[in-house]
From TrEMBL:
Identification of the protein by name: Tryptophan--tRNA ligase
HAMAP family documented for this protein: Trp_tRNA_synth_B
Catalytic activity, EC: 6.1.1.2
GO biological process: tryptophanyl-tRNA aminoacylation
Residue numbers binding L-tryptophan: 133
Reactions it catalyzes: tRNA(Trp) + L-tryptophan + ATP = L-tryptophyl-tRNA(Trp) + AMP + diphosphate + H(+)
Binding site for ATP: 9-11, 17-18, 145-147, 194, 203-207
Highest rank taxon of the organism: Bacteria
Leading EC class: ligase
Keyword Protein biosynthesis: yes
Pfam family, one: tRNA-synt_1b
Function of the protein: Catalyzes the attachment of tryptophan to tRNA(Trp).
Amino acid sequence: PPRVFSGVQPTGNLHLGNYLGAIQKFVALQHQHECLYCVVDLHAITVAQDPNELTRTIREVAAAFIAAGVDPKKNIIFNQSQVSAHAELAWILGCTARIGWLNRMTQFKEKAGKDRENASVGLYTYPVLMAADILAYRATHVPVGEDQKQHLELARDIAQKFNNDFSASISAKGYGDAFFPQPEPLIQGAAARVMSLRDGSKKMSKSDPSDQSRINLTDDADAIASKVRKAKTDPEPLPSESAGLEGRPEAANLVGIYAALAGTEQDAVLKQFGGGQFSAFKNALVDVAVAKLGPIGAEMKRLVSDPASIDAILKDGAERAHAIAAPNIAAVKDIVGFVR
Ligand code: AQP
């Protein structure tokens, strides 16, 4: 059966890119599939985190899922560290993955920077943990932003190599031809890659030192308006067709954001605003952004003011997640040949 898994790191400043690239899709998928949405706190500590701040942001990410419209009863919302299957499977899959594969991961190169010798081992093996997150549930569909495409491909390679390496044991022990499915990335839409408001060549990111570069989910209407109005653009008016956005990354980004927020296509946006002044388009973008994000931000603030309720949701989610993962981990141990 189809099963959806995705995760968001509790590393502060959830932004419009996280929302449009991932969380908004979580909401849409819950009507068709069984979905697990995870606050990936084990991933967060691959770079240094302040413990008190980490606790706060774990709850904040869970609140963002719920405030955006993910139903915690229908779906499983939980934090990764409460389900031991993730770390356990990551070890086993770390013995399947090859060093050469990890050496090609661009996110590690970007995040480790020049001082690679000083990056944590966890940052390097991050994509193996991500493969374990997905495969522990034998998930089939993974809604993520464009930036996670390479990690998803690695997860597919790891699943396939495990299936190949252990094919004899998998069939001898009655698990069929292949144990892990090939998880499919769901990366679509106008805003699979939301760019920084200050630089159309950089993705919008939690860790960008400039708060002006991103719209945070908790920004109020004034902050959203000011960031959109100050967003970098070029001096030309908007074109009336998509082809006219080529070589204009900042304009293309804002049009993509508008389309994703308004639930329409880029062409329709250009039909409406093409040829007009940029400022008129920006005003309309402020309106749609405030209409969409205002209620989410307000609900997030309300939810985090009651941490006990969020913790109860996370605990319930962890128990339900564990119930799905435990038999899969038992099977993997069986396949590998461990005595249980
Ligand atoms: N700019 C983006 N556009 C579209 N999708 C995005 N995502 C992140 N940035 C954009 C998607 O959001 C989900 C959660 O991301 P994450 O928290 O796991 O990690 P990240 O990709 O490292 O996010 P950030 O915000 O860019 O953090 P930093 O600054 O720490 O690198 C994922 O599905 C991701 O694709």
